[in-house]
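Please, structure for the following, as tokens.
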Amino acid sequence: IVLSRRKLLNRAVEKARKSFYADLTMDDLREGRVTKLMPFGVFVELAPGVEGMIHISELGWSRVENPDEVLHVGESVRVKVIGMEPSEKSNQLKIALSIKQTIEDPWETVDQRYHEGDAVRGKVTRCLDFGAFVEMEPGIEGLVHISEISYTRRISRPEDVVSPGDTVQVMIKEMDKAKRRIS
């Protein structure tokens, strides 16, 4: 006689998975546990045998370079289901998740916190040929054009004055809430 507990456990997991899929709908808010961090996103276990993926762009309103800057394996997270499609490889669903969509969009109320002429502190996030991007709060980023970096000397590269990670004092010249731009 050959016995296998694995087959019994697999049947139980498959039954639980089918029950979970039957209840799952778009825009559901669910709790999950981070199981794996990849360069392109994070895998989250929603139920035994059911995983979804949060793309790196859906981890938060701020720009994220590496998922391990934001989350850790084993961490509990609240997510929103933003996509479901059948998998070609198995009888499971590919579930797309978002943390960003569970949090209020900071651009909805940006005009209540910031006004043209305000002097604010921010962190330089990136430097490009035409200027430096400064994050004033998670998800709210503005551009300091290269011509505005210094009035006393000519700047050919923003990196000559600021570097990513620097905290700087900036003044808001112009805001366009509709286009989500701040100068």
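The CA atoms of residues 45 and 51 lie 4 Å apart. The chain has three helices and eleven strands.
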